[in-house]
Every structure is written in C-alpha cells, then in structure tokens.
Write a structure and sequence with these properties.
By secondary structure, the protein is mainly α. It has one domain (2-62). The chain contains 3 helices and no strands. It has helices at residues 2-5, 24-27, 34-62. The longest helix is centred in the last third of the chain and has 29 residues, at 34-62. The protein is elongated. It starts with a helix and ends with a helix.
Length: 64
C-alpha cells in the first residue's frame, strides 16, 4: 500500500472535485498487523519451497 499510494495524485484528491475525503492509506483497515503479514508471507514461501522439493523428489524416483 505504501509503495502504491505514496506521492500518488488520485482523481479524488483534486481541489475541484466534490469528494471531501480521499485518503487510501488512512482509510485502509487491515485485519492484521505488518508483523503478521510478514510471518504469513514467510510461511507461504517455505510451504511452496517444501512442496517444490517434494514434487522434485517424487519425479526423480519415477525416472530411476
């Protein structure tokens, strides 16, 4: 979110629009903290790595 919306000028942020508030970073309410997101991402990384290793081992046994 920070990477996408920092220093970005959106249509609703213009002075001539009738929209009163437009704050994508302030309005976003994540159900988890940054630490929880990092842990979840690391978990997905290791799960995919383990699955890839498992598939490689299964395929290598097939060709022996």
């Amino acid at each position: 979110m920070l990477n996408e919306y920092t220093d970005l000028q959106l249509e609703c942020m213009r002075k001539d629009t009738s929209i009163q508030s437009c704050d994508p970073l302030g309005d976003f309410k994540s159900p988890q903290t940054l630490g929880e997101s990092i842990i979840a991402l690391a978990g997905m990384y290791f799960a995919c790595y383990a699955l890839a290793l498992l598939f490689m081992k299964m395929l290598s046994r097939k060709f022996e």
